[in-house]
């Protein structure tokens, strides 16, 4: 990011996308450039291959247990679609209910505003440190950086987030941000960064988890302010929920005096009953468990139980621009399970960092470009083979491949200068609509046989821009005669 | 314009003047398990699912809950535990409490971290997912009580055991602070291999009566 970029990204239907210069939605490199490095990293590919195949197996087993899985998926999809159609009403109701139960609701147009609100709220408590529950929304807006700039110490408490924070790394997966690290690498990070850690610490996952417990225990007990995200916010009752495994979420949601929850506006659900669908879909899709170890739900403030000061920050940051796209808005249905990452052949090979955004994988490839405007993440809609595995596992049946194609079209239309590909296809269209030109072109292609010198594929000698195509693909040698020529020869007829 | 008005205005712009509101969502998934609460098959299913999370279940008759809670503490803490190690929810049935144990009051919640074990009731148990739900009532206690001591003993009575998630949620009051517990705390953050015991109680003992 440089100081020369305009403060606001361009808009969709006049609705602002997530602003440039703040947050983690844009990478420094395009997807293919970033992926090139990742593809050379054998350790990364081994770690990812091992982890994603493990989770795919677990998910498949627990999904197969439910005879009504497809009905649940369809209900999840329909509930999200119905929610989006009345998003304004549901958010106003959520605000009313949270306020009625002693919470304070704040609205944030974008990352900068959300960061300002949270920083101000933390500073007002007089606390100098905060504990955090893993949250995609706060990652997206780079809240930690904003709090640190204000002189506050921020402690991530989810094990994988802790690994990323201690290793000064970036998250690479929605559910398991440190999925790219194996146990030996994690052991090394802990041994190097945790003060007073037992030097005899091994790479046994149980021992590593115990080291994290010991490291964070005292911080939980002294914390005065916690920051969380929310998986669901129930409009009719003002109930917020956090779905987690380790108990770090419960520590943060229960012990501090002040709780600040940052929630994307699309996380609202109309009724408590709707959770009967999502609490079945999410854990099975996410960690491959029948239910995650802990789900916390709270409505405002409860005297004598938990934080006595509760703030809910409702975040837009480009979500309304996504909502404005009738095809693309389905990306807002995402419940952040990460099943699409785990089945994606592209993600499995390139890893999450290649996507440049906190939302990697197939869902990231449709969400990030819409949140930022497609021109700021133009390579992501192409970061897919369109195999459709993501659509098949998505618990709310988001048609990711169709949205990818939609965004590709949007990107092509937005090009001011025609690309080589566009010119080539325009030429092809002309040739194909003029039979004589078409047959001439086909015969001309036979010249390729000269450089093939009898081999089945052409050597890599084509000049730019054609060399771009053959850099990672074989171009078959043109045949001696075309199909039409053969047909004419064997069946007669005129060309 | 305030941020609130602006965000709401953007939503209205995005949805357009003639928004299409879909019809009522069809709930044609299973709304009930088909078996009534407390059905012996549901109790067996709950045991299977809770044990799958590597929690321990001790079954007993309703008359033997007190003795079984003590047996659970023997297993969870080792036989040498004393009443001072254990803190119970203020509304827990008197018969279920170990003699002389500490009863939670309005002390600062972090002081509960000094206790080795806590004993609570539950509001509902969901057999299919092996989930116990605590609802902040006097019998379940405040949230910190079931969080800070390293061993959690939950007493479940047969009538509280339902089959499915929809039946479980229907029994709950979403205005109360709720904690759904499915096994001991766990993580899959290292190579997606599940490890039990991180920040929450590392030992979960379930006393199932009936």
Describe the structure.
The complex is a heterodimer of chains A (495) and B (210). Helices cover 48% and strands 11% of the residues of chain A. Chain A contains 23 helices and 12 strands. A 6-stranded parallel sheet of chain A has the order 3-12-9-6-4-5, with helices on both faces. In chain A, helix 3 (69-85) crosses helix 12. The longest helix of chain A has 23 residues, at 42-64. Chain A is elongated. In chain A, 52% of the residues are buried. Chain B has 210 residues and is of the alpha/beta class. Chain B has a single domain, classed as NagB/RpiA/CoA transferase-like (Rossmann fold, 3-Layer(aba) Sandwich), CATH 3.40.50.10420. Chain B is 21% helix and 22% strand. In chain B, the strands form 3 sheets. Chain B has a 6-stranded parallel sheet, with helices on both faces. Classes of the chains: A alpha/beta (495), B alpha/beta (210). At the A-B interface, strand 2, helix 2, helix 3, helix 4 and strand 3 of A face helix 1, helix 4, strand 9 and strand 10 of B. Strand 11 of chain A pairs antiparallel with strand 9 of chain B.
In terms of topology, how is this protein built?
The complex is a heterodimer of chains A (495) and B (210).
Chain A: E1 11-12, E2 15-16, H1 31-39, H2 42-64, H3 69-85, H4 87-100, E3 103-108, H5 111-125, E4 129-132, H6 136-140, H7 143-149, E5 153-156, H8 159-166, H9 183-193, H10 205-222, E6 225-228, E7 232-234, E8 239-244, H11 248-254, E9 258-264, E10 268-269, H12 275-286, E11 294-299, E12 309-315, H13 319-323, H14 339-343, H15 345-350, H16 361-372, H17 389-393, H18 400-414, H19 420-432, H20 435-445, H21 448-452, H22 466-470, H23 483-491
Helix pairs in contact in A: 3-12, 9-10, 16-18
Chain B: H1 3-15, H2 40-52, E1 56-60, H3 65-77, E2 86-88, E3 102-103, E4 117-121, E5 124-126, E6 131-134, E7 151-157, E8 161-162, H4 165-170, E9 178-181, E10 186-187, E11 195-196, E12 203-209
Parallel strand pairs in B: 1-12, 2-3, 2-4, 4-7, 5-8, 7-12
Antiparallel strand pairs in B: 5-6, 6-9, 10-11
């Amino acid at each position: 990011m440089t100081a020369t970029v305009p403060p606001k990204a361009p808009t969709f239907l006049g609705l602002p996308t997530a602003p440039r210069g703040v947050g983690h939605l844009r990478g420094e490199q395009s997807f293919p450039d970033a992926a090139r490095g990742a593809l050379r990293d054998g350790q990364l590919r081994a770690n990812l291959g091992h982890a994603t195949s493990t989770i795919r197996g677990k998910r498949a087993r627990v999904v197969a247990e439910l005879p009504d899985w497809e009905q649940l998926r369809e209900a999840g999809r329909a509930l999200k679609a119905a929610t989006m159609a009345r998003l304004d009403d549901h958010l106003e109701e959520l605000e009313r209910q949270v306020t009625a139960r002693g919470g304070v609701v704040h609205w944030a147009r974008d990352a900068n505003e959300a960061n300002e609100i949270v920083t101000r709220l933390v500073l007002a408590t007089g606390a100098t440190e905060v504990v955090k529950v893993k949250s995609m929304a706060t990652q997206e807006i780079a809240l930690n950086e904003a709090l640190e700039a204000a002189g506050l110490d921020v402690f991530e408490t989810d094990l994988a987030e802790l690994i990323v924070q201690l290793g000064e790394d970036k998250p690479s997966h929605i559910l398991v941000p440190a999925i790219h690290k194996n146990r030996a690498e994690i052991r090394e990070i802990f041994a190097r960064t945790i003060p007073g850690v037992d030097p005899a610490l091994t790479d046994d996952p149980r021992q590593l988890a115990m080291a994290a417990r010991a490291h964070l225990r005292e911080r939980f007990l002294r914390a005065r302010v916690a920051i969380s995200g929310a998986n669901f916010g129930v409009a009719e009752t003002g109930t917020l929920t956090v779905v987690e495994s380790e108990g770090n979420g419960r520590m943060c949601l229960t012990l501090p005096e002040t709780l600040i929850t940052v929630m994307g506006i699309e996380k609202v659900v109309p009724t408590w009953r709707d959770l009967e669908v999502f609490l079945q879909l999410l854990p099975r899709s996410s960690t491959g468990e029948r239910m995650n170890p802990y789900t916390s739900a709270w409505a405002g403030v409860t005297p004598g139980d938990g934080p006595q000061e509760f703030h809910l920050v409702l975040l837009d940051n480009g979500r309304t621009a996504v909502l404005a796209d009738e095809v693309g808005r389905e990306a807002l249905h995402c419940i952040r399970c990460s099943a699409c990452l785990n089945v994606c052949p592209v993600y499995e090979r390139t890893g999450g960092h290649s996507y440049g955004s906190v939302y990697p994988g197939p869902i990231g490839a449709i969400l990030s470009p819409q949140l930022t405007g497609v021109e700021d993440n133009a390579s992501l809609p192409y970061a897919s083979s369109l195999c459709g595995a993501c659509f098949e596992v998505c618990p709310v049946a988001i048609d990711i491949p169709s949205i990818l194609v939609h965004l590709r079209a949007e990107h092509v239309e937005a090009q001011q200068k025609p690309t080589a590909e566009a010119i080539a296809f325009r030429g092809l269209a002309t040739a194909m609509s003029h039979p004589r030109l078409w047959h001439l072109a086909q015969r001309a292609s036979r010249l390729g046989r000269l450089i093939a010198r009898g081999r089945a594929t052409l050597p890599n000698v084509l000049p730019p821009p054609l060399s771009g195509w053959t850099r990672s693909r074989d171009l078959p040698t043109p045949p001696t005669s075309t199909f039409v020529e053969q047909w004419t020869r064997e069946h007669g007829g005129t060309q | 314009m305030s941020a609130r008005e602006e965000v709401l205005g953007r939503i209205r712009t995005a949805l357009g003047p003639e928004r299409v509101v879909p019809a009522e969502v069809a709930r044609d998934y299973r709304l009930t398990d088909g078996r009534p609460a407390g059905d012996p098959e549901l109790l067996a299913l709950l045991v299977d699912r809770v044990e799958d999370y590597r929690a321990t279940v001790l079954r007993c008759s309703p008359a033997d809950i007190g003795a079984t809670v003590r047996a659970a503490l023997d297993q969870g803490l080792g036989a040498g535990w004393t009443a001072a190690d254990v803190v119970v929810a203020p509304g827990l049935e008197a018969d279920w409490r170990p003699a002389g144990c500490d009863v939670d009051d309005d002390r600062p919640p972090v002081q509960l971290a000094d206790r080795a074990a806590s004993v609570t009731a539950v509001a509902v148990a969901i057999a299919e997912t092996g989930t116990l739900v605590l609802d902040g009532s006097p019998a379940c206690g405040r949230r910190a009580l079931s969080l800070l001591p390293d061993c959690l003993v939950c007493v479940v009575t047969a009538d509280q055991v339902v089959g499915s998630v929809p039946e479980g949620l229907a029994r709950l009051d979403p205005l109360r602070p709720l904690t759904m517990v499915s096994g001991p705390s766990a993580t899959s953050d290292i190579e997606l291999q599940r490890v039990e015991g991180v920040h929450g109680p590392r030992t979960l003992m379930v006393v199932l009566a009936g």
